[in-house]
Structure formats: C-alpha cells, structure tokens
Write a structure and sequence with these properties.
The protein is an alpha/beta fold and about 500 residues long. It is built from 16 helices and 18 strands. Helix 7 packs across helix 14 (about 430-445), helix 9 (about 340-345) runs parallel beside helix 11 (about 365-375) and helix 15 (about 450-470) crosses helix 16 (about 480-495). The longest helix has 21 residues, at about 450-470. The two termini are about 25 Å apart.
Length: about 500
C-alpha cells in the first residue's frame, strides 16, 4: 500500500536493524530534529509566547529533550518539565538530557501556571507504554486537556495504544493532541478507534532509514489508489443491464426504512436495477425513488442478482429462510445488520457461509462483530485490527469493521484503515446506505476487497462533503448520504477514469 502502517513489533525490529548501522543516539537526535521542525511550523508567528515540553523517563522523553534543545537554540522560550522517573535512563536519553541542559531551554520542577502557552509538546511516553497512566502523569494529561493551544505528541499521544487505537486501561487517560509526529513509520492506532480523537493531524518522519530495513506492512491507510483501476467512465453505448441487478433483502414489519435506505444507496452508486425485497408486505412504492422495485421475499427469484442481506430483516422464520437461500446462492453477497445477528446465532449458517465460492462481504459494527466471535464489544474495540482479521479468516470473507477509522480486512490478513468520515455518520441508517453502496459496486463487477474499500472510503467522503456544505455533522441524516455518494463517485471517475476509457 502507498500509506503503510506498522505494528509496534515491526517498528521495534526496524529500529533495532537501523541501530546496527548507526552511531548510538543517531535516531534520537534525528527524531528530535524532525520534531523541532514540526514544532516550529506550528509556532508560525507565535514565538513570543512560551512552549511547554513534557519529557518522560524513557526514550520518548529523550526525543522531547532533543526537541527542547533545538527550540532553545532557535530562540524559542522553552520550559522543560522533565519527569525522570526512578529507573536509569538509556545512554542515549542521558546524552539528550545533557544537550538540553547545555541549550537555552529552561527546566522547571513543576509546570508554571501559565495558560497562554504557544504550544505544548507531549514527550511523556511513546509506543512502549503498557500500563495506564497514573499519579503525576495522569494529572498532567488531564491538565493538557484544558490548554487552548496546539498540542504536539511525539510518536504517539501518551496513554494511547499504538497498535489498537484504544486508551490503555479501562479508566485510562491519553493526551488529546492536535498534531502527532510519529517516527520511523506510521502506526495503526493513530487512525482508528480513540486514536481518531487523540492523534489529531498525523505527520510521519521516517528519519532517513533505508526502505530495506522495514518488514512488509500488512496494513495501510485506504485511499482511492486501492480501487482507482475500477473507476472507468461509462461508454455512450451503455444500458442498465451492464451495471448489474441488486436485491436488498430485509425490511421486516416496522423496519422497511432500512431496506429502502440500502436500496437508495445502491441506486445512487450506479447499480443498473435495484429491488427492495421485503420480508413482510409494505407499501410497494418509494415516492422519493420510484425507480426502486419492491418485491416480497417468499417468492423472489434471487438468481443472477447481487444480494444485500440483512437491513431491517428481523429474526422471523421467513428471514432465516431468505438468508439461507442467499448464503447458498452463487451470487456475490453482502451481509449486514440482522443478517449478521442471525449468522452469529447459527453455527450451521456460519459453516455454509465459509464454504461459499462467490465473493462475500460482511459489514458489522463492533457489537455485531462481538456476537460473531463470542467476545465483548469492549474486547473488539481494544483490538480492532485483530478482530477484523480474525473474522475475515473465520468467515472467509472481506470484513468491514465499522466505526471511527473503519477497518477493512481480507482472509489473508491484509488490512486497510479508512481515513474518511465524521461523527455525522453516527446516525440511524448510515450503515444501511453503506451496505447498498458496496452492493452496487459488487453488482458492477468490482472484486470484494476493492468494493469494500471503495464503498467505505466514498461513504465517509460523502459525509465529509456534506459537512463542508454546511450539513452536519450534528443532525446529518442517512437519507442525505446517497446523493453525496453519487457526487463523490463521479468526481473520482472524472479524476481517475479518463485514462482507461477506450
């Protein structure tokens, strides 16, 4: 992937390999220099106010001390609060402390009560932290929450798990940074779960390491580059039969809206013909989208159609029958919502699902994923990448674990974290629209991986576009998403597709 993400173990391995060829302390000095450059960029025009640098006891603190020395030499008023801890520092961190004391940086035993900081730098703890922040460290993190200035985290916001994006500890705290400069390689935890709220804008400083030192990444940040080859403009000589038939199967009594939203998502994402196939009789007409065709599930012919199974499906026997027929079909399918809950409750359906030959995509939110794996939702959120990978292997499907920084996983372990979207998507029906969009891409011949990555990216980008237009995020509705998805999709085709038109 163009935007690789590395686990803590991989970063450690790269760091160790680099250390064999570099003089001691070279990486710490390079990290401090890169961090200082990032800090100076954030200070643009505000150098008359002081900068607070929080330096912890480990090598992350050494990076912060190097930064403080550079800022002091650049004429910045720097106040360093060094929390040395009880252990012996590494030789590199000890040398960084000597350099910081020799610079123009000022050291303090307690943080001065100055609220008008130009910048606060978090260099308390990096990727090595394995326990919740306590005592003075916890108090400092809570104090940082109250400052009204940029907060720059070094490598990872202190208290955040760099692999999972979860705050360490059930009642843990983590720095809420406005910016993070992360070293050697990017980390998944900065882009998913609580990392989205704590890392802010992320900048990667590779520190000049040779590409050959890195292990192959099995995760990356999703971008249109992952599905650009499928963004082909349509020929003038086209007809709707070329763009696939899609059936959304769900809509039990009282939940028909879920099936309608999914069907609208599919229609606006370009499926040729879209059926809303309901479990119970409903009004067989959508006055806003009369193009949708309504059918009843008990006598609907699924053959030759891509199937979106689950939106508003309920748990009645007719729902189980329709779901079983869909799983046994030779068509590409997408499982969502009630379809996932029914599969979670049936080992037989799970077995049938794993033996499918046609493409399968499943799109659980954390609680649905927890039911499928027999875990708690908290356990899912504490290891979103691991959960998505485990579910993809178990079901032999492409998995979209929804949430902040949705995780898309393949059975072979490849993962993409989606960077688009905003809190406006936390509304009823948003996932139904996503299911319909992904189903439409499957209906147009996209492979399961590209369809899932593309649908999640466009779905989030549509929400971002609505916010840019003044719609939300508060009060954004799922019904507003399909037209915005259409706009994003056509813009992508115009940007990426012309070279492939023949």
């Amino acid at each position: 992937m163009d935007n690789p993400l590395y686990s803590v173990a991989q970063i450690r391995a790269t760091e160790a390999a680099a250390a064999e060829t570099l003089e001691p302390g070279a990486l710490m000095r390079a990290a401090g220099r890169a961090a200082a450059d990032a800090a100076l960029a954030l200070l643009d025009g505000a150098r008359e106010r002081p900068v607070l640098v929080l330096a912890g006891p480990g090598n992350n603190g050494g990076d912060a001390l190097e930064l403080a020395a550079h800022l002091g030499e650049a004429g910045v008023d720097v106040v360093v609060l060094h929390l040395a801890g009880s252990g012996k520092p590494s030789p590199e961190a000890a040398q960084s402390l000597v350099r910081a004391h020799a610079s123009r940086a000022n050291f303090a035993d307690v943080a001065p009560d100055v609220r008008d900081w130009a910048l606060v730098v978090d260099g308390l703890f990096g990727i090595g932290l394995a326990r919740p922040l306590e005592g003075r460290y916890r108090d400092l993190v809570l104090a940082i929450d109250r400052v009204r200035c940029p907060v720059l985290a070094l490598d990872v916001p202190s208290g955040l798990d760099a692999d999972s994006g979860s705050v360490i500890g059930p009642n843990g705290v983590a720095v809420r940074a406005t910016h993070t400069i992360t070293f050697i390689g990017d980390k998944p935890g900065l882009h998913t779960a609580e990392g989205r709220d704590h890392a802010g804008l992320v900048q990667v400083a590779g520190l000049g390491l040779d590409a050959g030192l890195y292990e192959p990444a099995q995760a990356g940040i999703a971008s249109p580059a992952l599905f650009a080859s499928l963004l082909s403009p349509r020929r003038q000589n086209s007809h709707k039969g070329q763009f696939g038939d899609l059936a959304v199967i769900g809509g039990a009594r009282g939940m028909a809206g879920a099936a309608v939203l999914a069907a609208r998502g599919a229609l606006y994402a370009g499926a040729g013909r879209v059926f809303a196939v309901t479990i119970d009789p409903v009004q067989a007409f959508d006055p806003l989208q009369p193009e949708l065709m309504f059918r009843l599930a008990h006598d609907f012919d699924m053959a030759g159609r891509v199937l979106v199974l689950g939106p508003g499906m309920g748990g009645a026997m007719e729902a189980m029958r329709a779901l079983g027929h869909g799983i046994d079909s030779a068509a590409p399918i997408l499982l969502d919502a009630d379809g996932l809950n029914l599969v979670a409750a049936s080992t037989e359906l799970q077995a049938r699902l794993t033996h499918r030959q046609a493409p399968t995509v499943v799109t659980p939110h954390p609680l649905e994923a927890a039911r499928l794996l027999g875990r708690s939702a908290a356990e899912v959120q504490a290891d979103r990448l691991g959960t998505a990978r485990a579910l993809a292997r178990r079901l032999q499907a492409v998995v979209v674990l929804k949430g902040a920084g949705s995780v898309v996983a393949r059975p072979d372990g490849e993962v993409a974290i989606n960077p688009t979207g905003n809190p406006g998507l936390a509304t009823g029906g948003s996932g139904d629209v996503l299911a319909g969009v992904c189903g439409a891409l499957l209906a147009q011949g996209w492979p399961a991986w590209e369809a899932a990555v593309g649908a999640v990216w466009m779905h989030g980008a549509a929400a971002d576009r609505l916010v840019e237009q003044g719609v939300g995020p508060v009060g954004m509705t799922a019904g507003e998403l399909p037209a915005a998805v259409r706009s994003v999709l056509n813009d992508l085709i115009r940007e990426h597709g012309h070279a492939r038109f023949r």
